[in-house]
Amino acid sequence: MYRADEHGSPHHGTESKPGGAPVATAEVTGQETAALTDAPLVPLPITCAHPAKVIVNLEVREVIHHLADGVDYAFWTFGGRVPGKFIRVKHGDTVELHLNNHPGSKMPHNIDLHAVTGPGGGATSTFTADSVMPPVVQLTDEQVANVLTYVRNSWGNMGDAVSPDEVRLVREDHQ
After folding, report:
1. What mean pLDDT value characterizes the chain?
2. What 3-state DSSP class applies to 11?
């Protein structure tokens, strides 16, 4: 459970003022399911005046999306889209987060929520252990090329795609 601060950001545990003094909060009444949206859309403004229990249902899905010409990438998504969902709550709301791994997921997952206090932004308490990580002896040249192409084209980078042949040549040079 997370309680939203005055900026609508969910925080784990109890609210406090700077210095650790507890804050008086209104009683949580009512329950609703969060309306989640994909970027660039944000959820509609909240009109309810009292704090509520807001249930957030997220499903982790591993999906393949086209990244560049000739390059597909396996993304870990929330709801099948990148970036993840927008969640809107208001000050005083209690957020109950349900994080589920899609049955087709090969990896266990968790979520780091911006502005959530606690270890890893809540990551530890949202770990989904219903999938088992397969052992990886060595990635194929194609898998390495896909990861390198993703990194070269993320976070403002604009690099050329890396081919499996380029990976193979580097491996041969370093054996």
Report:
1. 76
2. strand
Q: Is 162 helix (H, G, I), strand (E, B) or coil?
A: coil
φ, ψ for residue 134, nearest 5 deg: -70, 145
- Report CA torsion sign: 103, 106, 108, 110: negative
How deeply is 38 buried, as exposed, middle or buried, from its count of CB atoms within 10 A (0-12, 13-18, 19+)?
middle
The three-state (H, E, C) secondary structure of 14-57, written as one string: CCECCCCCECCCCCCCCEEECCCECCCCCCCCCCCCCCCEEEEE
pLDDT digits (tens, 9 = 90+) for 69-84: 888 888 888 888 888 8
Tell me how many degrees the CA angle 8-30-58 measures, rounded to the nearest 5. 55
Distance CA 54, CA 107 (A): 27
DSSP per residue over 59-128, as a string? Answer: EEEEEEEEEETTEEEEEEEESS-SS--B----TT-EEEEEEEE-TT--S-B--PPTT--SGGGGTGGG-B
Q: Could you tell me the sign of the dihedral formed by the alpha carbons of 143, 154, 70, 82, in that order?
A: positive
**pTM of structure:** 0.56
Pairing of strands 53-68, 94-101: parallel
